[in-house]
Amino acid sequence: MPATHERTANRPLTTRPKRRSTGPAAREPHRPRHTRRADGRGPWPYLLIAPAVLGMLYLLVYPLARTVLISFQDFGLRELILGDPKFVGFDNYRTLLSDPRFWEVVGRTFFFMAVNVVLIMTLSTLVALMIERLGRFGRTAVLSALVLTWAMPVIAATTVFQWLFHSEFGIVNWALKELGFSSFDRYPWFAHGPAAFTILVVLVVWQSVPFAAITLYSALTTVPTELYESARLDGASGPRIFRSITFPVVRPIFMLVLSLEVIWTFKAFVQIWVTTNGGPGDATTILPVYAVQMALSSQRYDLGSAASLVTVLLMSGVLVLYFRQMFRQEDEAS
Amino acid sequence: MSSRGEPVKLRLLAGVSVLVMTAGLSACSDSSDSSGDGSSGGRTTIDVWLMRDSVSAEFQKEFVAGFEADHPDIDVKVQVQEWDGIGQKVTAALASNDAPDVIETGNTQVAQYAQSGGLLDFSDKVADLGGKDWLKGLAEPGAYQGKQYGIPYYAANRVVIYRTDLFDKAGVDPAAIKTRDQWIDATKKLNKGGTQGIYLPGQMWYALAGFVWDEGGELATESGGTWKGALDSPEALRGMEFYQRLQALGKGPRDSDEAEPPQAEVMAKGQVAQVISTPGGAQVVVENNPELKGKLGFFPIPGKTADTPGAVFTGGSDLVVPMVSTKQDAAYTFIKELTGDAWQKKLAVAMSYVPNKTTLADAVAADPGAAAMAVGAAVGRATPNTPGWAAVEAKNPIKDYMTAVLTGGDAADQAATASEAITTAMKSGS
Amino acid sequence: MTTTRPRIRRLPLNAAAVITVVVCLFPVYWMATTAFKPGRDIQSDNPALLPRTWTLDHFRAAVDADGFGLFWRNSILVTLTAVLLSLLVALGAAFAVARMRWRGRRQFMLMVFIAQMAPWESLIIPVYIISRDTHMLDRLPTLTLVYFMMTLPFTIVVLRGFIGTIPPELEESAQVDGCTRLGAFRHVAFPLLAPGLMATSLFGYITAWNEFTYANFLIIKQQDNRTLPVWLSSFQNVFGTDWGATMAASTLFAVPALVVFLLLQRHVTSGFAAGAVKG
């Protein structure tokens, strides 16, 4: 196929113009291509995005606007049922931001996110690289295992984790005891803040690695084998090949997965809610848990909305670097 | 939201009599009501929400058949609701245009729904329903600011379920256990070899509440309209101290409640001499291990002194009617029948419940579990009757407190922390 | 090269693979075996890796639950529609973003990313109010649309990433050969997108298949419109949860994901085999 050759040659340029090993000069010959592709003017692009935009406007922007509205109202169960909420200005935000507990929760959320994201990205990159090197059978086995992990219903996964770490009947305490760590006899994992936090990290990482690893592996399959071969002929070492060939190609997908994992761990909720309810004390309460405690348990939908909107703002703050990079990349590409 | 408020307000003005009018207003969403032949020929179909396993399938069938025979103009469609997420579900129903007509809800949940204005006020019907004999533990939580929204449906409270064979072997006479000290002594005798004297998980906070009440303490106290957690009072601390002594006489996990793992399944394994449970739990034990059939007995939770039984939390359900129901008359007929004496007696016998009226207590005299329960029900208590309490249960700092103390924390410090958490939760939820 | 050396060199790799599989599958395995254990053995002082006695009671209880067939039908309907709809819509949008230059492209991508961050736990109240006021409560299309929107931003973002890794030259050369622009995309780029399509459709499927809160909140009175996650939570009563039945149900519940994956995987490998990548 003639396409293959061309594709191989251009690969690192199209995906990652910024940091490629071939040097900036190599980009110039391809400039004409981009100008030729500027044919996207006219109605086509707008027609293609129209369904997505319309859907988002009605199903997301509109409800989001209502959430903003609710966050400026006195909106509890009564207002949900009878209507006629009162406008209270910034009262909810004032209540929220002056609550010292809220700021503790914010700090904990960032910590939780950072720990999880680092672990998820490291482990899933390693797993993806491993899958790529496996034979056909091994690859299918590992991929199937990942998919099953991913598909295991959250309620079952969280319950099983609770069982594994159960103080009296858990297999973890049993195994530790058998191995001679008698201090773990009846050790109540969920009664200690740091222990409960750790278990939740393990759970979230365990549930998140499959998606990240499968996606990264998919991206790895698009790295042309010729590149590896020529690098190996040049005598490049494994880590060096990864740094200068593999990573530049998968970098966009890697960054994408990274940003998604930031969002998802920031929003991790079900696992925590089912396992610890945010406890013991507040040890595992992160922002979404806090928001739901407000909204659904205390029926303060106004405070819950305000907390969620603050969460979105904080998240955007984390991802602003990613956006900037994404746009810079786009600017160079066009 | 204005389209929401209108029908409700109209109904408030015009009262229940203008059913036709309100039905017209929300007719556009009424398509679901047609379910079968219901709405034709002057018959009304009412939707009733009952909780999963709160009544047996046989009783439900018998009652519905009996009711429809007596009221040929009403069809009853029972929908069984799941426990998981029920709070949100009821909220969604109350706020919708097309709510069910009768909802079973936990007695302690009524206040928050009543406060929101989503429930029909039954104050003028109390006499008609025989309200003067209602169990306090059901009727009081069903009322909010002097108005009756929840109609008592059934009650159940905790008793001690014990293994008759293990008691015999240890030479303990359950009938002689009348005080807490005797209870502890007996349990110590049972707690030998492979047998656990009692399986008491660390977070059974309803049991703790009973011990606290026995000592004269409270979960929370009100003064001047604001509620404060009260677990740090000396009385409440004594309650916790007793819980800790009792809990140590078995291998109950200190960091989970009776549902995790289900204690009936633990007892079914055969090494547990006693559990604290509603009598219905015995049936689950036997289902899991048929060999224990006939080997389970019941006695009321002992009090501090021999003359008063231990205080217990009265659990149970009330029936409520959403404001938006378009068939409030038929719903009332249904409630009157189900909470009336005839069916209450049958229900109590079928399900080992305490009937909703003190005058009906004899109905279950022949049932040892229900009889033990009735002793406790006489001194039954409820959690603080305020909308804010639901927020406490949602987060439940009491459970954290119990685990902290049982795993070696300082009781007074932990109690202060927990009381503060209760205060905060009640404030945020009201 | 001798035959033993690569085998020894592959040893750490294979060991890592085995460890990965074990770590991933242990909780899954625990779920599945629990489904076969009698109730009182489920949580026990000395946990057993294999059930001491096997029972099918839990599966029976799970399958006998009220409305079992209806729940499956509803879930399949809602999930498939939502996933296909979002794939279709996202493919168009991702193509426009990755391959065309137009005013507002940046704003569009920013919007998609913000959509990705949407706080769905809090959006439930406005979504509920809007559905109520438009008489869309209790209806499956409402749920379908919500799931469509939950997965759409992700699908756009990921597909855009994958389209970005396919060199436009491939399509251009096809266009030179006489294909139309879209035809070139369909015949040349589409097969290369298979891994991306797999990742996104699996994601959409798992999201929609597992979602409980909206299913619980938006389907109120029409019990016939409830979906499978509600079934999963139906084994709870006042005495606790029947975990055996819950795990049996969860096992049945997870099986379709594996089937979907195995089906899709064949297409993915055939896409590779077409020579476009390995070449």
UniProtKB/TrEMBL annotation, chain A:
Localization, UniProt: Cell membrane
Keywords associated with the record: Cell membrane, Membrane, Transmembrane, Transmembrane helix, Transport
Residue intervals of the ABC transmembrane type-1 domain: 106-322
Transmembrane segment boundaries: 46-65, 110-131, 143-165, 195-220, 241-264, 303-323
Pfam families: BPD_transp_1
GO process annotations (BP): transmembrane transport
Matching PROSITE patterns: ABC_TM1
Main location: membrane
Membrane topology classification: Multi-pass membrane protein
Highest taxon of the lineage: Bacteria
Chain segments carrying region Disordered: 1-38
Entries under Gene3D superfamilies matching the protein: MetI-like
GO cellular component: plasma membrane
Ubl conjugation is among the record's keywords: no
Keyword Glycoprotein (UniProt): no
InterPro entries linked to this entry: MetI-like, MetI-like_sf, UgpAE/MalFG_permease
Family to which the UniProt record says this protein belongs: Belongs to the binding-protein-dependent transport system permease family.
Name under which the protein is recorded: Sugar ABC transporter permease
Organism in which the protein naturally occurs: Streptomyces fructofermentans
Taxonomy of the source species: Bacteria, Bacillati, Actinomycetota, Actinomycetes, Kitasatosporales
UniProtKB/TrEMBL annotation, chain C:
Highest taxon listed in the record's lineage: Bacteria
Membrane topology: Multi-pass membrane protein
Listed transmembrane segments: 12-32, 76-98, 110-130, 142-163, 184-206, 243-264
UniProt keywords, alphabetically: Cell membrane, Membrane, Transmembrane, Transmembrane helix, Transport
Domain named ABC transmembrane type-1: residues: 72-264
InterPro entries membership: BP-dep_ABC_trans_perm, MetI-like, MetI-like_sf
Pfam (any one): BPD_transp_1
Cellular component annotations (GO), alphabetically ordered: plasma membrane
Entry's localization field: Cell membrane
GO biological process, one term: transmembrane transport
Family in the record: Belongs to the binding-protein-dependent transport system permease family.
Protein name per Swiss-Prot or TrEMBL: Sugar ABC transporter permease
Annotated organism of origin: Streptomyces fructofermentans
